[in-house]
Amino acid sequence: MSARARRLWLLIILIALLLAGLWFSLLTGPVRTTPGDLLDFVLGRDAANAAIFADIRLSRALLAFLVGAALSLSGAILQGYFQNQLADPFVVGASSGASLGAVACISLGLGVTVFGFSSQSVFAFAGGFGLVAFVYALSRRRDVYRVETLLLTGIAAGAMASALTSFLLFMKADSFEQAVFWLLGSFALADVRQAAAIGPWVLASLAAAQWFAKDMNLLVMGDEPARSLGCPVDRIRKVFLTLATLLAALSVSAAGVIGFVGLIVPHGTRIIIGPDHRYLFGFSALAGGVFLVLADLLARTLLFPTELPIGVITAAVGAPFFIYLLNRKR
Amino acid sequence: MMRRAGFVALSLLALASTAFSQSEAVIDDQGISFPLSAPPRRIVSLAPNVTEILFALGLDTEIVGVTRYCDFPEAALRKPKIGGLVDPNLELIKSMGPDLVIAFRGNPLRTVERLRTLGMPVFVLDIGRDLESLFPLIDKLGRITRRDKEAAALAAGLRARLEAIRSRLEGVPAELRVFLALNGQGLWSCGRLSYLNDLIALAKGRNVAGAVERDWLHFGLEQLVHVDPEVIIVLARTPAEFERGRDKFLKDRRFRKVAAVRTGRVFFLDENVTSRFGPRLAEALEVVARNIHPEQFERVP
Predict the structure, then answer these.
(1) Other Cβ atoms within 10 Å of B44 Cβ, number
(2) In angstroms, rounded to a whole number, what is the distance separating the alpha carbons of residues B236 and B207?
(3) Closest by Cα among A204, A92, A211 to A158
(4) Up-side HSE of residue A110: CA atoms within 13 Å toward CB?
(5) With contact defined as beta carbons under 8 Å apart, do B94 and B65 qualify?
(6) N or C, which terminus of chain B has less Cβ within 10 Å?
């Protein structure tokens, strides 16, 4: 199959899965609703279930889609950035830093709103950026930049941040629910306003990544070859690292820490459509969104009436799929 | 005498303020003011102790949803469930069309916020650090549900029970060292910030973990041997569970020098009654008092 045909097929499959995911997300829940009710709601004929369809189920699916897209795009960027397929928002410390920021904000009891964002999201950005900047500075001594150093420093700093997060959560005896949220993620309280707050940023980040996608294609050949082909390597690296961190912080502040999405989705996408970043970014985002919509559907139906943290699903479904893809490739 | 006079003055003040605010508003423990209009007709309770008090106020028909932990009174078991304390289901609550949702400490504040953005009024109540805090709790629930009279009667009954126990214990020579063992892995107990610390004090006991500035805490084995409690109270859901909990102390050689173990003073306390911050705490208090000072309950006063 040509690369073009593969992309077309993947696009069709992803859109079909997205529609199916939305369909079931809207129709599944503890309150019994029929396709007829959904039709009434869509046509605006019946407001009885409007709150449940729009305010609860659709908000939830929308936020799951955006967070999945953000995490996956972040992973796609980082994997190109490090020329390493093991990179993801965790490895560079972005996710751990963001969750430390958010949890610190809650523990300190800070409640301000900046530009329509809760202080929690602002702290998440700050934590994510802070940790990534720290990791970046440490691994860039004397202007020699080494990918391995950055990855390893990222893992160590991330572990440090996670330890601090656990410590803060543990200090507050009555925050078990908080702990589960921040460590495993959840969309149970998803609000359409959260989706509206992060949506534009996710789209803008995707547009920016797309704009520099050709440069990323040069970057993966190595810094020197890229530079000789006229790519402003240092600036491009900064842009991509900022984008990846921003995306990770957005998703963490909206839904807690959800693992594996940023690792497996871009990886799987690359296996299917190839390493061209002009397509990889967009497809990864779409696939990540679809993946989390479906994962959230599972999270809230598998153990009905209780809900599973979504991080449990993404790891349980993601890891075997990842192993399968790796084996198939070999 | 001074105390009684003070109490009367306070009651009058409370009465005056209720009378004054009757048509006004009631303020919840988050400081949010709820204007009092028509009595609520569809109430969702997000906590077992709230459910218990609502039933005691005679709101059987008004309660439309409770948590899966709400098992007292028995009628609560027949009410539709909205999920648990930390994971109430938004969709179920919304579908019940409540005109009042009552939350308690333990319900995540994020959930409370989300219920509000879904357009439901949520009245939030906090847990107290002593049994005295039960009275404002009952009062607030009575006012928000417009059952002031029933609430006053419930409070009066509770006051009488507490008073009866207090008079029984009058003139107790010494407080005994008490260790309260919560259900679970390891030695969990209650610190100074827990209402159970107050409950032990009211029963004329001294909580050996009472110096710790926490509500719940993990107590060390070594610490327990060191403080040497004279009475151990084991919280359990069933007598069988209690026996397992008791054996943890009696059959562990490391505890053989502990006074309560030597004398076999390890007692059962119903977790269901004790863990809900509601009027049944008077029952728990009586059990604890009887176990710490049985002699006070033997003679006719």
Answers:
(1) 30
(2) 18
(3) A92
(4) 17
(5) no
(6) N
Which residues of A fall within a CB distance of 8 Å from B84?
A: 306
CA angle B264, B269, B270 (to 5 degrees): 150
Closest CA to A267 of A183, A213, A218, A329: A329
Residue with tokens 């994962």: A295
Joined tokens for residue B27: 């303020």
Residue whose structure tokens are 């629930």: B141
**Type of residue at A226:** A
Give which of A33, A56, A180, A301 to mutate to test B binding, by max B Cβ within 10 Å: A56
Chain B residues in contact with A176 by the CB 8 A cut-off are 86
3-state secondary structure A186-228: CCCCCCHHHHHHHHHHHHHHHHHHHHCHHHHHHHCCCHHHHHH
The full set of domains in chain A, from first to last, is 3-329 (1.10.3470.10)
In sequence order, what are the residues at sequence separation of 6 or more whose Cβ sits closer than 8 angstroms to the Cβ of residue B140? B26, B28, B29, B123, B125
A97's torsion region: left (phi>0), alpha (psi -120 to 50) or beta?
Answer: alpha
CB distance A305–B89 less than 8 Å? yes
Interface confidence, given as ipTM, is 0.81
Tokens 């990540």: give the residue: A288
Task: Assess contact for A326 and A270: CB atoms under 8 A.
Answer: no
CA distances from A41 to A19, B117, B124 (A): 17, 20, 33
Q: What is the pLDDT along chain A (330 residues), one digit of tens a residue?
A: 788 999 999 999 999 999 999 999 999 988 888 888 888 888 887 777 888 898 899 999 999 999 999 999 999 999 998 887 778 888 788 889 999 998 888 777 665 555 455 677 788 888 998 998 888 888 776 566 677 777 788 889 999 998 998 888 877 645 667 777 777 888 988 888 889 989 999 999 999 999 999 999 998 888 888 999 988 988 998 899 889 999 998 999 889 889 889 989 999 899 899 999 999 999 999 999 999 999 999 999 988 777 888 988 998 887 787 777 667 655
| Set of chain A residues whose Cβ sits within 8 Å of the Cβ of B118 | 51, 55-56
Q: Which residues pair with B178 in a beta bridge?
A: B207, B231
Q: What is the DSSP letter of A53?
A: I
Structural domains present in chain B: 26-160 (3.40.50.1980), 173-298 (3.40.50.1980)
Q: Which two tokens stand for residue B282?
A: 């008077």
Distance (Å) from the alpha carbon of B58 to chain A's nearest alpha carbon: 28
Distant-in-sequence, close-in-space partners of A125: CB < 8 Å, separation ≥ 6? A98, A101, A246, A249, A253
Q: How far is CA B27 from the centre of its chain?
A: 21
